[in-house]
Amino acid sequence: MRHRVGLGACLLLLAALGGCKRPCLCPEGLLCEQGRCVLPAGAKGACCWHKELAGDEQGLYAIWMASAQEAFAAGPAGLLLHLRDGTWESGPTPSHSSLYALWGSSASNVLAVGAGGTILHFDGAVWTQLSSPTDRPLYAVWGAQGHDVWAVGAGGTMLHMDGSVWSRHEAPGRVALNAIWGSGPQDVWAAGADNAAAAILRFDGKTWVRAPAPPAGPLRSLWGSGPQDIWVGSSDGSLWHFDGAAWSLSARWPSQSIEALWGSGPADLWAGGGQTVHEQCMTRARGILLHFDGSSWSESWTGPHHIRQLSGTDPGHVLAVALDGTVLRYEPAPRQSLAGR
Question: What is the distance between the alpha carbons of residues 334 and 193, in angstroms, rounded to a whole number?
């Protein structure tokens, strides 16, 4: 199945005399300047997100970008999508298990993990199923290198791949692990929940230990730029930062579960999430995308799509997937020129 990528939401509608016709097609908060949408000079935040792939009943749980032009997405019943040459394609899958996370070292070495301990590998041509030492759900995967990969999941499940074989590791406590990230092979972090409280584990290259956790609800997301710059997002809507010494509350969005974190550096970080409300005979979703510029958080997008995961390659190329199968792409808007003020 092929899905053609749509046009960006930041297109302009020009008037006959060359100016901007009102109302412009620029998103709210942008100005129309010389035939393009721009952020007002001095404005905070980041814009814009547009719908690249419309959602369907299948849904999407994971996204990983290999490059600005190539990405992978995964979802229920073994759904696997591949973006190449501006087109999303779905192809044969070796498993019908739900897939919750993706990671790769290159476009020819991609891993997907999911329900029942499922582990799939893409070699650049086809997906194959790998032998797994667990039947518990795996919710996150991360690698220091292509031959040094960790996967974590329910009940404190921790798996490690040393290049050819996956093996089980003992976690300190039966914590539910939802996210994993590392600054290198000897500094790996995993986040999740111990009952209804936040839980964090840390690996020093030899042993996993319990690490101090912020006073938050279950942790859903984790990302860092280094050992002194680590972020976690909670199901209670809070965002916490670790500076190498202690955790501090950075922001809180009530009623929003922070499901995803990705950044290109300390001054360019994205968070995504949302809430799903069940009302009588209908389900209503609300999603949010937040941006951190190194000093504060701001809302970049809100809409009817519960964001599940984020991935990017650099500040100008970021993708988000939602539980209804929608794919959103970030296309940064330029700043207003001094001459246009």
Answer: 40
Quick one: CA torsion of 124, 125, 126, 129, rounded to 10 degrees?
-30
Task: Round to whole Å and give the CA distance between 231 and 228.
Answer: 10
What is the pTM assigned to this prediction?
0.87
203-260 residue pLDDT tens:
999 999 999 999 999 999 999 999 999 999 999 999 999 999 999 999 999 989 999 9
Nearest to 141 by CA among 172, 108, 99, 194: 99
Average pLDDT, the chain: 88
In the predicted structure, residue 322 carries a pLDDT above the cut 90: yes
Per the structure block, which two tokens stand in for 309?
């995961």
When pLDDT is averaged across residues 51-68 and rounded to a whole number, the result is 90
C-alpha span between 181 and 148 (Å, rounded): 13
Q: List domains and CATH numbers for the chain.
A: 47-340 (2.130.10.10)
> Pairing state of beta strands 257-265 and 219-226?
unpaired
Give the C-alpha separation, 180 to 70, whole Å. Answer: 23
In tens, the pLDDT along 121-142 reads 999 999 999 999 999 999 999 9
Give ∠ CA 16-18-19 in degrees, rounded to 5.
105
Q: One-letter amino acid identity for 228?
A: Q
User: Quick one: pLDDT at residue 23?
Assistant: 40
Positive or negative, the CA dihedral 202, 322, 44, 19 is positive
Q: What is the pLDDT of residues 152-201, one digit of tens each?
A: 999 999 999 998 899 999 899 889 999 999 999 999 999 999 999 999 99
Distance CA 287, CA 257 (A): 9
User: What whole-number distance in Å separates Cα of residue 256 and Cα of residue 27?
Assistant: 23
Q: Which residues fall within 8 angstroms of residue 184, CB to CB, at 6 or more apart?
A: 144
* 311 three-class SS: strand
Polymer length in residues for the chain: 341
E-assigned strands of 107-147? 109-114, 119-122, 127-129, 138-145
Residues 41 and 31 sit within 8 Å (Cβ to Cβ) = no
